[in-house]
Amino acid sequence: MIEARGLCKVFQDGKRGPVAAVDDLSFACEKGRIYGLLGRNGAGKTTTLRMLATIFLPTSGSATVDGFDIVREGARVRERIGFHTGDTRLYDRLSGREALIFYGRLQGLSRDEARGRVETVARLYGLAEFFDRRVGKMSTGQQQRISIARVAVHDPPVLILDEPTVGLDVFGAREVLETVRRFRDQGKCIIFSTHIMTEAEKLCDTIGIVESGRLLAEGTTAELKDRVGSHDLEEVFVRLVQQAGTVESGAAAGRRV
Amino acid sequence: MSPKPAVRIERLSKSFGAFRAVEDVSFEVHPGEVFGFLGPNGAGKTTTIKILAGLLRPTSGRGEVAGFDVMRETREIKRRIGYMSQLFSLYADLTVEENISFFAGLYGVASERRAARRDWVLSMAGLGEHRRRLTGELSLGWKQRLALGCAVLHEPPILFLDEPTSGVDPISRRNFWDLIYSLADAGTTVFVTTHYMEEAEYCNRLALMNRGRLIALDTPAGLRAAHREPILEGRENRLEMVEPSLEDVFISLVRDAGGARED
């Protein structure tokens, strides 16, 4: 479903010159699976997800999403993904229903299609209780559930979720994780990033750890734990990243090239 | 005689019109303690912190912070507390050093103390080499340490941290907690809110709020032990007492107290 081969993204930094935020990254995720992309702040996760979502073009390398090339077939790729980031905002003055219909229309659904899909999504993800409330009047957790449901309105086979539980309390986070599980059970292919290792552990079929734009380790939770010899995924993460020896650089992002 | 509590509140309540944000809450925080303040969104945590920081007047009840009254002596309180939120409130277009000078001025750090305090923050946060970098260029973990340094420039005995590690990676989070512990070891009382149960485990004691009320107050181990449950274990189906995770305890306590407030 998603296959990245040798993805690179180089940014020009005024002081440091060219900096590789993502450096020869390859990984794959099948349908009905959740791939957890973990890494420190500035490791290159978000840049990677943005390339897959066709927001950035890769400097070199390539990726396909549901068989379509992210560089040459961007429009096709965008039809097939739902992309959620912490920056995603909803209009405060729309109700939950209106917000989702608006988004469905943006995705090219007809008015009737959008209405129909939105009702299905509301039923599947349990939004009925607050669906007609204005977004601005909802709790943070409810807003986040609308925001996550938004990515599924056009029923894309691939979902890219960048830290979807940031700022949520225990209940809000559990509901989001439950929704993501349902997406998986419907056969969607999901890339999920988080800094909360217990979430990654509960949810992800495969975990990839990124450091300085490179894939440092990949495997199931059990495989990674075995490799490091610890039962605690956070400990595994910390040790693998520290072994890479790039931690105390203090750099905001990337590798100088 | 035990030392005076850093924070003491008694039957504290705050209403906004008909809405009871905080209702009849009492607790004490000991000096030098790392005190975790937990609860779902809307439980009344931020309102309580605002009262303790002298920013909101309670509707009823009493409270003291560093020995000063939250009704009448808010100016005294503000001088004795540090506050850091998840938004950090640093200026991205100032250098590290400039941010430190700015906050030193804001907090009224005496001019003869400023150089020493600046150097202390730079070394505590490990930012010595980066003192002339623009704050906006720093990674999130470094910004977080700088924000913590700025919040304690005036050496407050009590530090309030409101979700200080939201969105921060595990390595930066560990470094941050090392700093919190070193401040607590030096006698600072740390009052911290978080949604991460891994972090709640690091606190000396936890207060759990729901619907404006205090529903539990104990050590993390105490909370887990009180919620041990018998489950059938092993081939012989023997009953074994299993200690739940802190997240399970949190969820069952909130559910027993009527569930989280949804609006």
What does this structure look like?
The complex is a heterodimer of chains A (257) and B (263). Chain A has 257 residues and is an alpha/beta fold. Chain A has nine helices and eleven strands. In chain A, a hairpin with a 2-residue loop joins β4 (60-65) and β5. In chain A, α3 (96-106) runs parallel beside α5 (140-150) and α8 (221-228) crosses α9 (233-243). Chain A is globular, with a radius of gyration of 19 Å. Chain B has two domains: 7-229, Rossmann fold (3-Layer(aba) Sandwich); 230-263, no CATH class. Chain B contains nine helices and twelve strands. Chain B has helices at 45-52, 74-79, 96-106, 111-124, 140-151, 170-185, 197-200, 220-226, 246-256; strands spanning 7-16, 19-29, 34-38, 60-65, 68-69, 81-85, 158-162, 189-193, 205-210, 213-218, 229-233, 238-242. In chain B, strands 6-7-8-3-9-10 form a six-stranded mixed sheet, with helices on both faces. Chain B has a four-stranded antiparallel sheet with strand order 2-1-4-5. Chain B is globular, with a radius of gyration of 20 Å. Chain B starts with 6 loop residues before the first strand and ends in a 7-residue tail after the last helix. The A-B interface holds A 39-43, 86, 130, 137-142, 163, 166-174, 195-198, 234, 237-238, 241-242, 247-248, 250-253 and B 39-42, 86, 126-127, 129-130, 137-142, 163, 166-174, 195-198, 247, 250-251, 254, 260, 262-263.
